[in-house]
Amino acid sequence: MTRYIIDCDPGHDDAMAILYAAKHLDVVGLTTVAGNSSLENSTRNALAICTLAGLNLPVVPGLDRALIEPPLDGAYVHGATGIDGAELPAPSYDPLNRHAVDFIIETAKAAPGELSLIAIGPLSNVALALRLEPRLAGWLKSIAIMGGSTTSGNRTPYAEFNIVCDPEAAAIVFDAGVPLSMVGLNVTRQAGIAERHIARLRQDGGRVSSVMADLLAFYLAKMQERYGTPTAAMHDPCAVIPLVKPGLITFQPLPVHIELGEGPLRGMTACDSRPMRRDHDQPGASRPANCDVAVAVDGEACVDAVIDTILGYDRP
Amino acid sequence: MIPLLIDCDPGHDDSMAILYAAKHFELRGLTTVFGNSIVENTTRNALKICELAELDIPVAGGMGAPLVGSFAPSMIHGASGLDGADLPEPKRRPVDMHAVAMIIEQAKKAEGELVLAAIGPLTNVAVALRTEPRLARWLKCITIMGGSLDIGNASPYAEANILKDPEAAAAVFSSDAEIYLAGLNFTRQAILERSHADMLRQVSGAVPETVAGMLDFYLSRNEARYGKPISPMHDPSAFVPFVRPDLVEHKPFHIQVELASPLLRGMTVADQRNVTRRPDEPEPPRANVKAGIRMDGPAATRHVIETIASYGRG
Questions:
Q1: Which of residues 110 through 129 in chain A touch B, CB cutoff 8 A?
Q2: Chain A, 271-290: which have a CB under 8 Å from a chain B CB?
Q3: For the segment A177-217, what is each residue's pLDDT rounded down to a tens digit?
Q4: A160 to chain B: nearest residue by CA?
Q5: Where would I find the beta strands (DSSP E) of chain B?
Q6: Beta strand pairing call for A269-271 and A256-258
C-alpha cells in the first residue's frame, strides 16, 4: 500500500488537505516549510491541526527559506499566524527532532517504491531532498503537487504562489524524473468554497467542523477581498483528491518548464498546451511531457468530498 | 469610410484581409514586410492581389529581416508565400518608396484619421514609429493581428508575427499609439472551414474563385499539419472590429513583450487576473492595448466570406 508524506505550509487550505488526506490515505508524516507563513508558524499550525483532529501525525520541520528567493508573505490571505480566524488548540505534542529533508529520504529508503509525496507548499524541502539523495527520485512512487497554473497566476500575473516562492526548487522537482502530477490554479479556482459549505460545517458538525468553519470564513473573506469572487479557491485539497477519487480531476501529460529568468514571468509554469506540438520550425519546440497537468475538474464534487470528510471527524 | 493602410506579409489570410478591407475602408496602400515569406515574395503577392481585385493603390516594399536576429520562412503558406492561388505575374510595380516612408507619409497626410493595420511582423511599424516620433500621434490607431492572451502557435506561448520580431513588437507596444490587438485567443474564435470555400465557389468571378482556391490550399496545409481542415481566421479579425463592432468585445490590458526567456520569447504578457492590489504591490502599469477577448465567430466568418463573395456579383 502506498504511504504518503504531506509537505506543507499550513495555511487554511493546507489544513483542509491534511484532514482530507488523513481520513483516506496512509499518511505517515507531515513535513513543513516556509511559505504561506514562517517555518515556525507552519510547524505550529501543523501540530495544532493534528491536535484538533486527534491525528497525532509526526510533524517534521524543514527549510525556513527558499533556495534563492527572499521570503514572500502570504499574510494577506492567511493572516499573521498563517492560519488566522479560529481558536486552534495548543499543540499537544512536539515536532520530531529531525529535519524534513532527512525524514523524506529515510522514509523513502525504508520502502522504495511505496512512498509518494503530496507537496502543497513551496518545493524547497522536496528539491533539497532530491539533490541530497540522488537515489530518492528512483525510490519515490510519485509526487502530487498543488502549484502553478496553465492560465493566469495569483501572486503575479502568471505565477502561482507556491512555485514563485521557490522557482529554483520547482525547476529541480519538475526535472527530477519522478512521476509528477500538478494541480494548478486553472483547476483549483473552479473548486470554490462558498458560504453554504461553511454553513454546512456549522450546522452538521461538532468541534472539528466548527473550527474549520471559522477558518474557512476568514479565508473566504480574504479571498473575496482580493479577487472579488463569491467563492474562495480550494487549492491544496485538489492535489489530494485524485489520489482518493480519481475521476474528479482530469489530467493531460504536458511539457512543463519553470521560468527562472528575472522579470514578470519568473515562477511561471510554462505548459505547452498547444493542440498539436509536433513539427514546429520555430524556437520553443516542445520537449517530451514531464508532468500530468490537471486540465478539468468537477469543482462542486471536489468541495463536497472535502466538506463531507471534515464532517466525518465529528462522527463517532 | 475610414482611411486605411495595411502593413502585411501575404500570405493567404493576409490576402483575404486585404480583399475584405478594400470593401469596407478607404484603402490607401499596402506596405510589405518579411513574414509568411521573404519580402520579395510578400511584395509580389501584394501586387498580385491588387491586380486581381483591380485595387489602384500604391504598394511599397519594406523590411526583409527582423531588428534582431535573422529570419527563416515557414512553409505553411508554401514556397511563394501564396501557393494554391494561381495568380499571374503582376504587371504592376511597387512604388519607389520604402514601406517605412510610406507609413509616415500616409499618416501625416490623413491628419489623424489613418488606421494602420499591421498583420505581419511589426518591423516596418516599429522602425516608422522610432524614425518619426510624431507618428504615434498622427495615426488614429494601429490594429494588430498578433500575440495571444492564452496559448501560442509558433511556440508554446508566442504567436508567429510577434515571435518573428519580438523587439519590434516591444517597440510598438511601448509607443504612445492607440493599439487594438487581435491575438490568437481572439482569432481562434472565428474558424474557417471547407464550407466557406464552397460558398465562394457558388459565386462567379475572379476574386471569389481565387480566394476559394487559396482557402483550399491553406486548409489542406492545416489538415496535414494539425489534423483538421480548419483554420482560425487570423488576419481579417484585425479589421472586423471596425466594421462590425457588434460582433466583438475588447478589454484594455497592459501588454509587454517577453524578450529574454528562450522558451517564452515573443509572448505577449498581460495581467489577466482580476485582483484588488495588495498594499505591497506596485500600481499596475497603464493599459496600452485594447485586446479582443470575444468574437461571434460564425457571424464574423460569414460576414468576411460574404464580403469576398460580393466581388463576384458586380
A1: none
A2: 271-277, 279-286
A3: 999 999 999 999 999 999 999 999 999 989 999 999 999 99
A4: B273
A5: 3-8, 26-32, 59-61, 115-118, 141-145, 179-182, 191-192, 231-232, 248-253, 255-257, 268-270, 289-295
A6: antiparallel
In tens, the pLDDT along B64-107 reads 999 998 888 776 667 777 777 778 899 999 999 999 999 999 99
ipTM: 0.85
For residues B225-250, average pLDDT: 95
Residue from B12, B24, B196, B234 carrying the catalytic annotation: B234
Length of chain B equals 314
pLDDT along chain A (316 residues), means of 10: 97 98 98 96 98 97 95 88 95 98 98 98 98 97 98 96 98 97 98 98 95 98 94 98 98 96 95 70 66 98 98 92
User: What is the Cα–Cα distance from A283 to A269, expressed in whole angstroms?
Assistant: 18
The catalytic site residues of A sit at: 9
Tell me how far apart the 2 most distant CA atoms of chain A are, in Å. Answer: 63
Place of cell 525556513: A64
Q: How many angstroms separate the CA of residue B115 from the nearest CA in chain A? A: 30
CA distances from residue A290 to A170, A171, A214, A250, A261 in whole angstroms, order as listed: 13, 11, 39, 16, 20
Most B CBs within 10 Å, among A73, A231, A265, A266, to test the B interface: A265
- Chain B residues in contact with A158 (beta carbon < 8 A): 269
Q: Which of A15, A46, A14 is nearest to A30 (CA)?
A: A46
Cβ within 8 Å, pair B72-A281:
yes
Separation in Å, CA of B117 to nearest CA in chain A: 24
